Amino acid sequence: MDFGRISRRHLLQGSAALALGSTLGTRGAAAAETTVGFIYVGSRDDYGYNQAHAQGAAAVKKLPGIKVVEEEKVPETDAVEKTIESMVNLDGATLLFPTSFGYYNPHVVKMAGKFPKLHFEHCGGLWSDKDPKNAGSYFGYIDEAQYISGIVAGYSTKSGKLGFVAAKPIPQVLRNINAFTLGARLANPKATTQVIFTGDWSMPVKEAEATNSLIDQGVDVLTCHVDGPKTMVENAARRGAMVCGYHVNQSPLAPKAYLTGAEWNWEALYPKFVKMIVAGEPIPNFYRGGLKEEIVKVSPYGEMVSAEARKHADDVKAKFMSGEYTIFKGPIADNKGKTVIAGGTDRGQQDPELEKMDYLVEGVIGATA
């Protein structure tokens, strides 16, 4: 048996392991430092969703007096409960980041109830006042960075045809598609965005097929909202198209094709949360922010981005940073011609109507179902 490949959750499948865990969880060394656990649904080096969180964990490791334990490829099942119990009992973790969206209910909620003195922070904005108070939810307005990517894409496209490979037509994904398109049309009013939904968060074969299909239809700039953009980025670059990334900076995968991208900035947020916990400061149960709050960021511009595009994008970014810019400002029509935001109406980032978004804006070619 390869003991090096045994995960923490497997160690907890026997009563002996549980006894060992309770013993180690109280050892003196643990009391001298704070242990933080990170759990990922996929690989830490996926150039996507999981890598973004892993980069945040790497920043936490640099803090004095902090120990970080991690486990990757943990399914959104009771497997995450076993991993949490292991990190608590074997490693003495007192702050846990189960990062995948599907971990929260029922798994994180259940574990927060079981360990009321520990802290659980979950990515996705799902916490409600009915949930345990030692659980919290955080998320970012990454549509702001998608909007900036759209501006750059609008200047960079030669065909006027942009492409978006998306997982599912849920409000957060639609918000990103719409923000990207509105940004692009700010720069190029005739630009269109064609969307292909793959049906799930990680489907590399379908993502490759969607990328090729879009390029075959004349799209010359692509972006995405899937867990692992690597497939889209590499395939698009291979076909001679330009790309805007998502989750992390994918420019190493396609240095000549990469324009910019919408990134999570967990490297700033996670150390902040850990410092708050160590200092005994409460973290709000529902924590959100955008570019101004440094929860999201924009990838550095690639060599093909023009000076005009850079200036326009930087000007809008500065307005986001000062809190003076609204993406969803009426009048806005959907792609069927119906007015969805009336003239004179601003839907700021905290507007509950944006949480229910079920439409694609004018300029998007595609359907939400």
Pick out its properties.
Rossmann fold; ABC-Purine-Binding; alpha/beta; 7-stranded mixed beta sheet; Nucleoside-binding protein; 6-stranded parallel beta sheet; 369 residues; 36% helix; signal; 17 strands; disordered N terminus
Strand content: 15-25%
Unreliable parts: 1-6, 11-31
The end-to-end span amounts to 47 Å
Arrangement of strands in the largest sheet: 12-10-9-8-6-7-17
Number of helix segments? 12
Q: How many strand units?
A: 17
Q: Structural class of the helix and strand makeup?
A: alpha/beta
CATH class of the largest domain: Alpha Beta
InterPro entries: ABC-Purine-Binding (IPR052910), PnrA-like (IPR003760), TAT_signal (IPR006311)
Pfam families: Bmp (PF02608)
Keywords: Signal
Protein name: Nucleoside-binding protein
List the helices and strands and how they pair.
Layout: H1 8-11, H2 15-24, H3 28-31, E1 34-39, H4 49-61, E2 66-71, H5 79-89, E3 93-98, H6 104-114, E4 119-123, E5 135-140, H7 143-156, E6 161-166, H8 171-187, E7 192-197, H9 204-216, E8 221-225, H10 230-238, E9 242-247, E10 258-264, H11 266-278, E11 286-289, E12 296-298, H12 307-321, E13 328-329, E14 332-333, E15 339-341, E16 346-347, E17 364-365
Parallel strand pairs: 1-2, 1-3, 3-4, 4-5, 5-11, 6-7, 6-8, 7-17, 8-9, 9-10
Antiparallel strand pairs: 10-12, 13-16, 14-15
Helix pairs in contact: 4-11, 5-6, 7-8, 7-12, 9-10
Structure, described:
It comes from Bradyrhizobium macuxiense. Residues 35-326 form the ABC transporter substrate-binding protein PnrA-like domain. Pfam families: Bmp (PF02608). InterPro entries: ABC-Purine-Binding, PnrA-like, TAT_signal. This is Nucleoside-binding protein. This protein is of the alpha/beta class. The chain folds into two domains: 3-140, Rossmann fold (3-Layer(aba) Sandwich); 143-263 and 299-365, Rossmann fold (3-Layer(aba) Sandwich). The protein is 36% helix and 21% strand. It contains twelve helices and 17 strands. The protein has helices at residues 8-11, 15-24, 28-31, 49-61, 79-89, 104-114, 143-156, 171-187, 204-216, 230-238, 266-278, 307-321; strands at 34-39, 66-71, 93-98, 119-123, 135-140, 161-166, 192-197, 221-225, 242-247, 258-264, 286-289, 296-298, 328-329, 332-333, 339-341, 346-347, 364-365. A seven-stranded mixed β-sheet has the order 12-10-9-8-6-7-17, sandwiched between helices. A six-stranded parallel β-sheet has the order 2-1-3-4-5-11, sandwiched between helices. Helix 4 (49-61) packs across helix 11 (266-278), helix 7 (143-156) packs antiparallel against helix 12 and helix 9 packs parallel to helix 10 (230-238). The longest helix is centred in the middle third of the chain and has 17 residues, at 171-187. Mean pLDDT is 92; it is low at 1-6 and 11-31.
